[in-house]
Structures are given as structure tokens and as C-alpha cells.
């Protein structure tokens, strides 16, 4: 099954990127480069979704990129220190394919 979720990439002062998947509670990761961060996001999302399906729980419906953009201040409220930092944040959509889990 194909899943597609918006992600938030946050450039870190010391280098690299932190990644949040707002629709998947607790799904966070990081990468040394933007490309690495995207790959890590796919891996984190796949693991989060697989565990949820194995536990026979419902996978949350993804927000649109526009909905995520409107909620960005709320999502990053405790993470980003200033408006300047908020302007450096990137939004993207990442897609993962998960095989169906037998019930």
C-alpha cells in the first residue's frame, strides 16, 4: 500500500536536518544532508506505519501540504526559536510503499 505524508525539515545550526512527520505522532529523525534527511524520513515513516499495521491500529489520514503549512507555527512552537529560524524550515511530501500486513 502507498502512503504519502508531508514532512517538515528543520536545518540545524550545527549542520544537518531534523525531520518531523506531523501526522505520525513521535515520528522524527535526522540526516546530515537534505538528501539523507529525506531517506531517513522514508525509513522512519515506513517503520512507524508497519508497527501500527502489525498492531492492527489505524494509520492516520495524511494532511495535505497546505494544511501542514497552515499549522506550521503550531507544529514548531516548541522547536524553532525565532521567526528567522521558521523561514529556513522546508516542507515536502514523502511517499513510502508498505506491503500489506496479514491480519
Report on this structure:
The protein is an alpha+beta fold and about 100 residues long. Helices cover about 35% and strands about 25% of the residues. The protein has 4 helices and 4 strands; from the N terminus they run βββααααβ. The chain has helices at about 35-55, 65-70, 70-75, 85-90; strands at about 1-10, 15-20, 30, 90-95. The chain has a 4-stranded antiparallel beta sheet with strand order 3-2-1-4. It is globular, with a radius of gyration of 14 Å.
Q: Secondary-structure element order, as H and E?
A: EEEHHHHE
Gap between N and C termini: 15 Å
Structure class? alpha+beta
| Second CATH tier, the architecture | 2-Layer Sandwich
Q: Tell me the Rg in angstroms.
A: 14 Å
Question: In what range is the share of β-strand residues?
Answer: 25-35%
Specify the CATH class: Alpha Beta
Largest sheet: 4 strands, antiparallel
Note the overall shape.
globular
Mean pLDDT: 88
**CATH topology grouping:** Double Stranded RNA Binding Domain
Order of adjacent strands in the largest pleated sheet: 3-2-1-4
Low-confidence stretches: none
What is the count of distinct domains?
Answer: 1
Helix content: 25-40%
State the total count of DSSP E strands: 4
Counted by DSSP, the helix tally is: 4
Amino acid at each position: 500500500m502507498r502512503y504519502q505524508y508531508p514532512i517538515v525539515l528543520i536545518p540545524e545550526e550545527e549542520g544537518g536536518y531534523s525531520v518531523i512527520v506531523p501526522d505520525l505522532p513521535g515520528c522524527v529523525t535526522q540526516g546530515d544532508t537534505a538528501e539523507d534527511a529525506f531517506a531517513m524520513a522514508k525509513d522512519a515513516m515506513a517503520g512507524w506505519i508497519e508497527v501500527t499495521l502489525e498492531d492492527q491500529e489505524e494509520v492516520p489520514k495524511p494532511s495535505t501540504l497546505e494544511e501542514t503549512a497552515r499549522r506550521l507555527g503550531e507544529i514548531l512552537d516548541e522547536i524553532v526559536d525565532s521567526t528567522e529560524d521558521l523561514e529556513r524550515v522546508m516542507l515536502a511530501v514523502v511517499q513510502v510503499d508498505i506491503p500489506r500486513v496479514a491480519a
